[in-house]
Give the backbone structure.
Amino acid sequence: NGLNFFFSLLGSTLYLIGSVLYIPQLNSIIAGTQIFIIGSAIIFFSQAWKLWRVVSVKEGSAVHIKWKMLLHDLPGSFVDTFAGLGGFFYFIGSVLFLPQYDTSDDATFIAAVWFQMGGLFFFFSGLALAVRYFFTENYP
């Protein structure tokens, strides 16, 4: 669990660094985008790993997938799922903002839609966290 938190912190820190590099006076937008790509990949895989640990149940030497395990803490499952999807959509959007792909207004629009979807999923993750914290007994 501590390793997951470390990777979530690392991905979030890379988002912060990438955001700072978007400041026009720094003239580092491409570097900021590249750092966002790395941060997004880390966030996506960290959240996917958390979900994998929830649904994979070891029985003897075999590992079985038990999707019903997600129901034990449904708001927590939503937090992790939405954050993972946010990272995935930010990853695609960031790649599409690279100069070799962002070649027209239409391409910029498509990249922005992917990026906006990422933001929306991170917002849903925050809402699920608030529900988990204030309205359930599952919060540790």
